[in-house]
Amino acid sequence: MNIRKELLKNNVILLSFSDADYKKGSMGILKNFSGQKAIYVSLAVSFPSIDTKLKKNGINTEKMHFIDVASGKVKDQKGARCYHLSSASALTELSIVIGDLLKEGYTYLVFDSVTNLMIYNNPSRTKKFVIDIVKKMRSAKTKGIYFALRSNVTENIIKAVGAFVDKSIQIKLK
Predict the structure, then answer these.
(1) What is the CATH number of domain 3-171?
(2) Total-model pTM
């Protein structure tokens, strides 16, 4: 699927995957952003791991800026291509960093994954955070993608987030 083409018609998209389709599907989606000025928010995989994985899959990450929430608070690396944040429950900190980066003119923001926020935050707080980030993306004219893992537990948050994005797509690989 050509997500960049979908983003021409829609500003913010929610892509939901089954657990079995997530790894292959998300890498296929991320190939659309190879070499693009993008922000990648990772809640489950550390910056060195995701950067290596993307490169191994032929994705040029040179213009990407990463927000690493997975590895916990590490010394800030402002000169590097990554901010390390304390935890996925620090939504105010995450919102501020995303807002600051959006002011730098990034074309895309990829949020991996909105359903991981549910581990650290209640549904109401997660929903408010997602709405805040969607507003910031629209204000900055940055196209956005939220990844989500489909399960019985995450069904309600996917529906809630789906109400605030322009398009919600279930990714099913054959």
Answers:
(1) 3.40.50.300
(2) 0.91
